[in-house]
Amino acid sequence: MSEARRTPLYPRYADYPAARCIDFGGWEMPVQFYGIQQEHEAVRTRAGLFDVSHMGELEVTGRDAERLLQRLTTNDVSRLAIGQAQYTLFCKPDGGVIDDLLVYKLAQDRYGLVVNAANTQADAAWLRRHLEGDVTLRDRSDDTALLALQGPLAERILSRAAEARVAELAPFRFVPDARVCGVRALVSRTGYTGEDGFEIYVDAGDALRVWDGLLQAGAPDGLLPVGLGARDTLRLEARLPLYGHELTEEITPLEAGLSPFVKLAKEGGFVGREALARQQEDGVPRKLVGVELLDRGIPRADYPVYAEGRQIGAITSGTQSPTLKRSIGLALVEAAYAARGTEVEVEIRDKRLRAAVVATPFYRRQLVEGGGRT
Amino acid sequence: MSEIREGLRYSEEHEWALAEAGGGIVRIGITDHAQSQLGDIVFVELPEVGAAVEAGASVGAIESVKTVSELYSPVAGKVVRVNEALIEHPERVNESPYDEGWIAELEVEVETEEALGRLLTAEQYRAHTA
Q1: What does DSSP assign to residue A243?
Q2: CATH number at residue A343
Q3: A137, part of any domain
Q4: pLDDT tens readout for residues A287-311
């Protein structure tokens, strides 16, 4: 293995005495700046700024770019308008997931792909294997920094640091040539926290300027820098999958509950379609469900899940929910045990603790201030 | 800098031990350095009262938001009391690792000086964490 890689924002981590770095897919990334719970709460109630520059950015260009993506991704690229992004997946022929990603339609013949850091090389290789006709693949990861500004006050904060059309973006829409803190940026209304928010792509050389500028613009609103620890608890409460946990080459998107992003009927088919169509017809053997522990304890990835005295699955991710203060997890279990209310047991350090299958997402933001669900 | 309190004994696994006045009882907990490395502690799996434990054996677990780590007993003995306040307030281990965040008390069979004798002094522990 080569040495850990660092993002252009690495020098800023040292400004925070409580900051802790961990290895994440070969990257030296901050797990926290202040404390996971404090950062988590900032994103749920105010706003947080994430350095997610480790993510991979690939660009596919050419007259046959759309055809390539249509063939390799499960969602329907042809539905995208220029200026729109889409959540989608790469699958193997057997339906197992190679990666989950966002596809940005930059122009009629140009697409940006945002992929998981640890999978960037494998994704690029997978795309390259399928290149056909007029299409070019470029890896822009090293030149690109990615900041995520997330939380109910994200719009207000960004509107101070960027032009109006950015703050007015609809979900999954983007502006490719915005100015943020005086530099050129691609800004999309996307995120991975279950809150409103934006993802801001800038040249690696501009990253520090945008980071500093946004933190300054957000200071009156209590904006905090947020590490990967809170990113994980935020996404888990919102039931957003994490590759390597809820998605792997051995798990299909249908098992993971992502069928809205699998367009089995799209024209021309796609790699993995036959296997997924068969699974859809036969019924998925396993389902990803939410579980909540009834006994005291915290479920963690790979802990076995039991029902009726035998193992029926395993936890894929778990934590104590900072928002709900309850022990929650996602588990991949045999489909017969996936109904809400099913009583199961989670084995934690040789003890079987009582748990129940519960509805997900565990947390859903209020769409209208003061109204809506809890 | 994390606090290393004089007068306590320490294990290389970042637990502390203190002989209670009166003899025979050793109180244990985790160090300031350990709590700061773990981050926000959200759950403490306490040892069972009455359990006999070996020195260096796992007697419970401390969970932060992100990770779980084993709690090892720095001394051998029988668990006679646990800090039940940590069930509702695990954050006390972060806030006060040497006082309100103590974890358990063990009855040791040997003299407490002997039980603690194999552990690091504050000075040795400072060198260990440096």
Answers
A1: B
A2: 2.40.30.110
A3: no
A4: 999 999 999 999 999 999 999 999 9
Token pair listed for A224 = 């905090």
Question: What string of DSSP letters covers A338-358?
Answer: -STT-EEEEEETTEEEEEEEE
Number of cross-chain residue pairs from A and B with Cβ atoms under 8 Å apart? 42
- CA B100 centroid distance within chain: 12
What pTM value is reported for the model?
Answer: 0.93
Query: Is there a domain that residue A99 lies in?
Result: no
Res B97 pLDDT > 60: yes
Which residues does residue A367 pair with via DSSP β-bridges, in sequence order?
A: none
Q: Residue A166 domain-assigned?
A: yes
Q: Are B14 and B31 in contact (CB under 8 A)?
A: yes
What are the sequence ranges of the domains in chain B?
9-117
- For residue A316, what are its two tokens? 């894929």
User: CA B96 to CA A133: how far, in whole Å?
Assistant: 65
B9-117: in CATH 2.40.50.100? yes
Segments forming the whole domain that contains residue A148: 10-52+142-237
From the list A170, A173, A157, the residue with the least C-alpha distance to A47 is: A157
Decide if B51 touches A, using CB distance below 8 A: no
Looking at the 3D structure of chain A, how many domains does it have? Answer: 2
Q: What is the pLDDT of residue A2?
A: 64
Q: Where are the alpha helices (DSSP H) in B1-130?
A: 32-38, 85-88, 92-95, 112-117, 122-129
- CA dist., res. A147 & res. A198, Å (int): 8
The answer on A232 and A314 residing in a single domain is no
A277 in any annotated domain: no
User: CB distance from B69 to chain A under 8 Å?
Assistant: no
B122 touches chain A (CB under 8 A): no
Nearest Cβ partner for B63 among A18, A229, A298 = A298
ipTM surpasses cut 0.85: no
pLDDT for A373: 38
Confidence label for B92 from pLDDT (cuts 50, 70 and 90): very high
How much is the pLDDT for B86? 97
- The answer to whether residues A154 and A223 belong to one domain is yes
